[in-house]
# Entry
Amino acid sequence: MKAQEFRDMSDDELRARVSELTDTLFHLRLRRATAQLPNPMKVRETKRDLARAKTTLRQRGERS
# Structure
């Protein structure tokens, strides 16, 4: 996802997305450790999406 897509989400949607991405990252790392991950780039994409979502939440918190 692009950063603008995260900015367009509400705070509740962002928190839900962070939770979802954290779960996804855990499962991807588990699959990578057991050599069952067909596309290792998904780990990088998920980490970056998680960082974008957390950054957006933090920026909103600083403005308030």
